[in-house]
Each structure stands twice: as structure tokens, then as C-alpha cells.
Amino acid sequence: MIELNKIYNIDCREGFNLINDDFVDLIVTDPPYDVQAQGCGGGKKKWNGGSRFKGGHSVFGIETSEAQLFEYVKPNDYMGELSRIIKPDGHVYVFTNDKNLAELQIEAEKHDLKLMNILVVNKLQGTYFSYYQKYVEFILFFRSTKGRAKYINNCGKGNYFEYRFSRGKEKLHKSEKPLELINELILQSSCEGEIVFDSFMGSGTTAVAAIKNKRNFLGFEKDREYYEYSNRRIQQYINT
């Protein structure tokens, strides 16, 4: 039997088998997705800290780097399971970038998840790219169509956000998201005591936000180092 308020050190593709249908109230997750950044031309204007695609994976570092940023998990590996475990009136938030918007939407439509809006997050600092720097990420906001539609708690809120993302040595995780942003999503789409799920916990931001807002949390993180860090971060937050 799966336990609440716990992160499991397991690949979500295995972990989903532990969760019953219609079990969680809200999903907020940031799947690993393909990213691309590069400089502009050559010579003095050449920026040599870009990323590019290699063998289906995204690589970040200098141009000659062979290091892998993270394993790309395709939407068909998890969207059906997210739909299965979310309650019939639940909301699902999935972070992504411009490259992967269409694939996520198409996959979601196969699994009783209706796109209600696309939230735009300005990171207040651009990622280098040859065809205009990239300042924004996207959050696809779905609702389950297994039941009646449920509104967000503050319908007056717009779909544009501005949050400073951690950079360099500040970052707890390679794709860390601001705690304040996750707080906002949780407050909009859940109530105290409900269950917030994240299939890619990373540094545990979703768990900390859930605790902060008196929700239960549940999630998976297959990387042992991040799993252990998340547990330490949660304990530190509880003890403060």
C-alpha cells in the first residue's frame, strides 16, 4: 500500500503501478523534456555554452560536451497514467517548452485530459538561442474529463507569471522551478488536506509547497542523489 507524504526512489514508469485509479486530487509535475540553446553565429558573438540534441537526449554545457543533461521521458510514458490516477474533477499542470507543446497536447487528448489553458512563465533571464533568446516556459493546464469540471480557486488570475528562476550555483536541481510558482498552482487547484502528486520530484519543491500549504504530497524521483536531497530539504523545512 502506498504511503502519503513520501517520495519514492523509483522510476515513475514503475511507481505508477503502486497508485490506485482516481487517487490524487492534483498533479503538478515537470517532466524531463528536450531543450535547445545555442549562440548566434561565430567569432566574438559566438556563445559556447549551448545545448543540442544527441541521440534523442538533450545535452547542456560547452559545445563539445558529450554530457547528458537528463533522460528524456516521452509523454506517452506518463500522460495516460496521470489521467488514470487523477480524480474525476482533478487538475493537472505539466511544465514544458515550446518544442514539446504539441506532442503533450496530442497525447493528453488520448487520455481524458482536456487542455484548459496554457500558462506562460517569464523567467526574467533568457536562454541563448540563435533565433531570439528564450525567456519563457509553459505550463499546460488540463482538467480531467472523467467527471464534472472544477474551477480554479481564483478565477481572476491571469495566465502570465513572472518569477526569477535560480541560476548557476543557486540551483538545487538542473531544471528547478521557483517554490513560489508551485505554491500558486497548488493554491489555485486544491484545498487543505488534499493530495498533490509529482511524478518527477527532482529537488522536492512540490513536496515542500504541499507541506507549506497544508496538503498531503506523494511523488517519485529515480535519481538517488536528488531523492536523498529532497528528503533532507523536507525535513529541514518541517523543523524550521
Shape: globular
Based on DSSP secondary structure assignment, what is the total number of beta strands?
Answer: 10
The residue-averaged pLDDT reads 85
* Cα-atom radius of gyration: 18 Å
CATH superfamily of the largest domain: Vaccinia Virus protein VP39
Beta-strand fraction estimate: 25-35%
CATH architecture of the largest domain: 3-Layer(aba) Sandwich
Amino-to-carboxy terminus distance: 30 Å
List segments where confidence is low: pLDDT < 50 over at least 5 consecutive residues: 41-70
Order of helices and strands: EHEEEHEHEEEHEHEH
CATH class of the largest domain: Alpha Beta
Helix share of residues? 10-25%
Q: What number of domains?
A: 2
Query: Helical stretch count?
Result: 6
CATH topology of the largest domain: Rossmann fold
The biggest beta sheet is recorded as: 8 strands, mixed
The structural class is: alpha/beta
Plain-language structure description:
The chain is built from 6 helices and 10 strands, in the order βαβββαβαβββαβαβα. It has 240 residues and is of the alpha/beta class. Helices cover 23% and strands 28% of the residues. The model is unreliable at 41-70 (pLDDT under 50). Strands 1-10-9-2-5-7-6-8 form an 8-stranded mixed beta sheet. It has a two-stranded antiparallel sheet with strand order 3-4. α5 links the parallel β9 and β10. It has 2 domains: 6-33 and 72-239, Vaccinia Virus protein VP39 (Rossmann fold), CATH 3.40.50.150; 34-71, no CATH class. It has helices at residues 12-15, 79-85, 101-109, 179-189, 205-212, 224-239, and strands at 6-8, 24-29, 51-54, 57-60, 86-96, 113-127, 134-144, 160-162, 195-198, 216-220.
